[in-house]
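hiii so um. not sure if this is the right channel but i have a protein structure encoded as tokens and i wanna go backwards to a sequence. like what aa goes where. can anyone help
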């Protein structure tokens, strides 16, 4: 397991990212002053975003169905806990967007290579959903293979 986003596990059978970029901001309010440089005051933490990028080759590694599952999770509008494989808890994150570039097509139009970018933003931990709660996904068959999840 590379990382878990709620019940979704980033790994070789699902979606394995090749790069992780984290951007953390802190907010400083400014106040213009006559004849002097602006005064700044620290007002708290700002955005904390994580960008995961990589590629999937469905015939070799990963599954495009996993990207569809992440889209379904994003459509709930809920926050999910983000934990990496070493046990580091990042906190509650929402999925902002998924970018996808398909290439190397079969004659049927199915891509043999799909590059992806996933953007997550940290939110208040109280927004995180319960572990299973109202999850309307096929938990019983989440065994690493998404071929039979019906996510077409």
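sure thing!! here u go:
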């Amino acid at each position: 397991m590379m990382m878990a986003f709620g019940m979704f596990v980033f790994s070789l059978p699902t979606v394995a990212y090749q790069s992780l970029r984290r951007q953390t901001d802190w907010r400083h309010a400014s106040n213009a002053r006559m004849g002097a440089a602006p005064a700044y005051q620290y007002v708290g933490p700002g955005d904390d975003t994580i960008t995961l990028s990589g590629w999937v080759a469905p015939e070799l590694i990963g599954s495009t169905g996993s990207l569809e599952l992440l889209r379904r999770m994003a459509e709930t509008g809920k926050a999910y806990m983000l934990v990496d494989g070493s046990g580091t808890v990042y906190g509650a994150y929402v999925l902002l967007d998924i970018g996808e570039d398909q290439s190397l097509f079969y004659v049927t139009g199915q891509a043999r290579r799909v590059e992806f970018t996933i953007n997550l933003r940290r939110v208040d931990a109280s927004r995180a959903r319960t572990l299973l709660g109202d999850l309307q996904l096929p938990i019983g068959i989440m065994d690493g293979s998404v071929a039979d999840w019906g996510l077409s």
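oh and The first strand starts at residue 3 and ends at 5.
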